[in-house]
Amino acid sequence: MGTQNTSVRPHAQSRNDGKNHSSRSTRRRYGGVVHDNARHTTRFTVVGNHLAQHEDLSLVAIGLAVHIQSLPTGAQVDIDTLADRFPEGRTRIANALRELEAHGYLRRTRVRTDGGRMVTRTVSCNHPGRTAGEDEPSPPQPRRAPDKPPRRRALPAVPQPVYPAPDLLQTALGVLSGLRREDARLLISATDAEHLVPGVAAWLERDLTPEAVHRALTTNLPQDPLHRPAALLAHRLTAQLPPLPPFHRAARHPLQNCDTCDRAYRAPEPGSCRDCAAG
């Protein structure tokens, strides 16, 4: 008969008598993602973790950036095309595009074509701050991480015109460009102006003159410094949007440029105005 070793401490009795594992152990063993990866050889897109795991972008913006990066050059990525492709709707897609623009994953500029029309040129950047052909930078030396720059808040949504004709948008841009002559605090960037142009165009569609829209945006401004003038303008464009006139028709044709005299007129398709067609 063996003797008991009194120098060994007896094992503590488990609270659950060893019948059940703790929830933490269960989560460690079974929880969390497990990757089942197959190697892609065709039809794939390389996406950086700086985008896929971005701390400030919304999930809609990250998914939209991945979709845009997977498209071939020349594919349409305007709000209407994306809204037809995805169920999120125009407002969420427009907000996601502005997020990507604010963080450098998109660059959108208005350019005039050879035919005189204004179009939006979109450039997708898969690595903001880098250009094609740059070598991968060497790992930085250990040092104190710089302070995180403040996050750029997205501007409030603005009304959208029924027919965003090029001439209408150009007039709206002229209204915004002239605000700083009334009050220097209303100087805004080109990116902010591009966001606000549809809102001004929606006012002009309601038969307001550019001068009337100018007065509405510059009257009774606060005396305090304007830290975000574009946000103030976006709020006014939405909160003070006038109603449609009684005679406004939903089927109102968009503005076109006459192919002969270059004057603006309303018609369903491009061509010549009534005077030039009659002459």
Notes on the structure:
This protein is mostly helical and 279 residues long. It contains 10 helices and 4 strands; from the N terminus they run αααααββααααββα. It has a two-stranded antiparallel ribbon with strand order 1-2. A two-stranded antiparallel sheet has the order 3-4. The mean pLDDT is 81.
Distance between the termini: 125 Å
Number of helices: 10
Number of DSSP E strands: 4
Strand pairing plus helix content: what structural class?
mainly alpha
- Which band does the percent of strand residues land in? 5-15%
The gross shape turns out to be globular
Strand order of the largest sheet: 1-2
Topology at a glance:
Blueprint lengths: L22 H8 L18 H4 L6 H12 L8 H7 L4 H13 L3 E7 L5 E7 L41 H17 L7 H16 L4 H9 L10 H11 L15 E3 L6 E3 L7 H5 L1
Antiparallel strand pairs: 1-2, 3-4
Helix pairs in contact: 3-5, 6-7, 6-8, 7-9
List the defining traits of the structure above:
two-stranded antiparallel ribbon; single chain; two-stranded antiparallel sheet; globular; 37% helix; 279 residues; mainly alpha
Outline of the structure:
By secondary structure, the chain is mainly α.
